[in-house]
Amino acid sequence: MGFTVDTSTGADKQELYAGLVRQLGGLLAGERDPWANTANTAALLYALLPNLNWAGFYFLRGGELVVGPFQGMPACVRIAMGRGVCGTAAAERRSLVVPDVHAFADHITCDTASESELVVPISSGGRLIGVIDLDSPLPARFDEVDAAGLGQVAAMIAAGCDWQLAGIDTF
Ligand code: SME
Question: Which of these, 55, 63, 96, 127, could form a disulfide with 46 (CB 3.0-4.6 Å)?
Fold first, then answer.
């Protein structure tokens, strides 16, 4: 059965995220496989959110973050906890809005096109599973509305998958 992404939604940012959450609910319904669900979520994020050059997941595996399903250019595979924007958000378990990646001392460059970044942790039952990472070629592309919207996506993904199926640590 096909899934049609409705890209017409989103006159403003709040509406855009409301549409994204609605479509994500449809995608996740009836499927609990982490790789299937996160691959489709990466595709949905990349299709719906404007001005991105990367959208995807890093998961905690063997004590470090390992790249998961994504859309965009090939990316750094492993990121130590506490390093880069992703490792910092994971270690501190908080969302990070980085308006200028060049001003973030420990930023890890995967695609030189990236100018700004948003990373949101994914947790389930108080345990860290990984992060969602969005990169943009525009400076200051992300704000608190994006962080809240992506936080909702992270919560839906956390609740919508059986993580033990995927060999992902929780922390
Ligand atoms: N910039 C990230 C690395 C991941 S890529 O952007 C896909 C970081 O500093 O953690």
Answer: 55
